[in-house]
């Protein structure tokens, strides 16, 4: 009676054609029942399938949430299946080698080859469109150098810190325990220990898995102060001092990150296990939310004072900041604060808006924040233009997976680079893009111990170390081809960028590269003059009206 009533209501509303699947199932069910009795057990399977389709069709007809399946019961679900499978069909069967996003197949193949020790050569020439406006290249010399020293390290905090640190040219960028699995954190840290490079903890605090193999750590402190916070979420100096042991080499204050600048991170309560809660000093099973802004400072000067406090608490280890560049005058405000107080950051890491390892709101990921290239140029100009470049080291982070990106950042002005997703690839990530669902198939971004089992730390750590070493080896080839022997010898004029089909220029002919102390001596004559007037050491707010009537006041970067 119930089925008959539902059918009459559905058929009168939608018509006979749209009800063909549930009608067919209703008709075939008694037939299959008779055949099951008369023939063999295979008909039982058919009967059960028919019954399932009948019940599913009835549910689809009556449920109020999805209009498609109300009108096309069962059949409408086929669309869902193909929508769910679409990214995988496209990645493996449709897209070209250079089409995949955010990392192409060619980029992933390069990382895999270097991590696993396979040949990373490419046959038959480039597949890139060299006439594209996105195409960039590095110039070589008729007289190349015999060798280039890519194992040299960059001193951070030298002459100012009691415990300066020597950083390599490529390190592991910030990825938190919780966003990454315990096995992934352990594999990355062991890889860092093998290769002699550093491992940024991300803002999730220092877990036991960061500690197992002794790899150098850069402790990132976000606005949640995870791992060194009181119950009210404020910074606890005593906890910081206790945790900042010999393995922690530097501290990094995270102001913002590329994937979601100005947005606090969120770890869903379902993923906040007892272990993660203990690491972060939060409550298990409760959403772990990072505030948008820091509670320990609200002005550039207060930020420098906080950095100075952490330098003292850590026993004289370097302290820096990480940010995705937004308002240019805010970057200049930090420079003015350093000039005024003579309290200096030891390093600044510029995170490009194209970065990101976990999940982020789509609008922020796509349309908020400055990409790495212009962001790096802004901070480089801010340091050079104020005469602070010799006091503050500069690093770059954001979609750096090969020696060519590494060389480009060094040419613009970076001292070293950090990479996140490429190191994930090196330990098994396949870009399934399930980072936020806890269903990562390779165990890299899931807290499910059954999936983590697939990630063998001893194997994947060797691959992380091999990827870093091979990438630096390739960087040496580029530097030597340019006729240079040191990474620091790369200059902006070594990097060319195509503008259109007939024009291409060195990067310093496209973007403005300021001269030493230009912002001190003659700021009005630079393209940063209006932003310089807006910057103030005691506030992140602009000192002048930014919407200026003079169209020449705000020129291109």
From TrEMBL:
Segments passing through the bilayer: 20-37
Glutamate synthase domain residues: 167-484
Keywords: Membrane, Transmembrane, Transmembrane helix
Protein origin, superkingdom: Bacteria
Keyword Transmembrane carried by entry: yes
One Pfam assignment: Glu_synthase
InterPro entries in UniProt: Aldolase_TIM (IPR013785), GltB (IPR024188), Glu_synthdom (IPR002932), YerD (IPR027283)
PANTHER family given in the database record: ARCHAEAL-TYPE GLUTAMATE SYNTHASE [NADPH] (PTHR43819)
Family listed: Belongs to the glutamate synthase family.
Name this protein carries in UniProt: FMN-binding glutamate synthase family protein
